[in-house]
Structure formats: structure tokens, C-alpha cells
């Protein structure tokens, strides 16, 4: 179970690193997208965007340090809950804001983003609850590699869903 915990923690850290980098690459676009998701005054848009990115940067840093890993996972779980709530409220209000989680995307927010966040939340909870210990180096490398593949799949989630939707 140690390797599952390590894999889940690496997955969460990598996904948040991807999202932070993608938002930093187009910070202005990310900031402009926020009012579509959350009711925020114009003066607070950029500080809110900066806070989100700062917390996203903090997650992989804390997850990489064994003693700080629970704090990083806690920040990740809090962010995922906030993102999920914002998406659910936007969907309930009929808003078709584009997903800016992994950079510029034309894909509007939808139920699939709630599913994606739910899966990431499950990985975060598993990383928090599974027992820790000394994992074998080979198993740790395999777990980290699997996490990298999982993070790439999550970052490409919209494209994968669109691909299967077109072919069905």
C-alpha cells in the first residue's frame, strides 16, 4: 500500500504543478476567466487568481517533502473542493465558461470536470489515509512513473473525452 500512497501523492503533486504552470503561462487569461466561475468584484480578480496559483504551486512543493506531505495534500483537497463547488455552481447557473485548468481550452465546463476533480480528490484522500512507510526504491520509481502517466492523462482529459465523444 505504500506504493499506492506514493503514486497518489505524486499524481496530485504533478497535476497541481501542471495546472500552476499552465495558469502562469497565461495568467491574464486565467484571471479574466474567473468572473465566469465565481462572483468576484473586478478589484479582487487578480488577487484571487494570484492566490489560486500560489496555492497550486505550494501543493507540489509540500507533497515532495515527506514531513510536509499531509499539509500539501490538505491544500490540494481544499482547492479541489473549491474548484468543484465553483464548477457545480457555474453549471447550475447555466454558464458555459471554458475550462482553464490546463491552459487555454475551448471545452466548456461540464460534468466531466466534476468527475475529473472527484478522481483527483479520491487520489488525494488515498494518499492521506493509506499508511506510510519505507517503500522499496524500485516500487517507488514505478509508482512515480505511473503517476506521471496519470497526470499527463488528466492534463489531456478534455481532449481524450472529446476524441471518444466524436467517435461514438
From TrEMBL:
Keyword Cell membrane carried by entry: no
Limits of the Methylamine utilisation protein MauE domain: 4-129
Family matches, as InterPro entries: Methylamine_util_MauE
Transmembrane segments: 6-24, 44-65, 71-92, 113-130, 136-157
Coiled coil start-end: none
Protein location: Membrane
Cellular component annotations (GO), alphabetically ordered: membrane
Keywords assigned by UniProt, alphabetized: Membrane, Transmembrane, Transmembrane helix
GO biological process: methylamine metabolic process
Bilayer topology term: Multi-pass membrane protein
Signal peptide limits: none
Domain of life: Bacteria
UniProt-recorded name of the protein: Methylamine utilisation protein MauE domain-containing protein
Natural source organism: Nonomuraea muscovyensis
Amino acid at each position: 500500500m505504500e506504493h499506492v500512497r506514493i503514486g497518489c501523492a505524486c499524481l496530485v503533486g504533478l497535476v497541481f504543478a501542471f495546472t500552476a504552470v499552465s495558469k502562469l503561462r497565461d495568467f491574464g487569461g486565467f484571471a479574466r476567466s474567473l468572473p465566469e466561475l465565481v462572483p468576484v468584484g473586478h478589484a479582487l480578480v487578480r488577487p484571487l487568481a494570484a492566490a489560486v496559483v500560489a496555492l497550486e504551486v505550494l501543493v507540489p512543493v509540500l507533497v515532495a517533502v515527506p514531513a510536509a506531505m499531509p499539509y500539501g495534500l490538505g491544500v490540494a483537497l481544499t482547492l479541489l473542493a473549491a474548484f468543484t463547488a465553483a464548477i457545480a455552481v457555474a453549471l447550475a447557473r447555466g454558464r458555459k465558461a471554458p475550462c482553464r485548468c490546463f491552459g487555454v481550452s475551448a471545452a466548456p465546463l461540464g460534468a466531466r470536470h466534476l468527475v475529473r476533480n472527484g478522481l483527483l480528490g479520491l487520489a488525494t484522500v488515498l494518499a492521506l489515509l493509506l499508511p506510510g512507510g519505507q517503500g522499496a526504491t524500485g516500487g517507488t520509481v514505478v509508482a512515480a512513473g505511473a503517476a506521471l502517466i496519470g497526470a499527463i492523462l488528466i492534463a489531456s482529459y478534455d481532449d481524450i473525452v472529446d476524441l471518444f465523444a466524436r467517435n461514438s
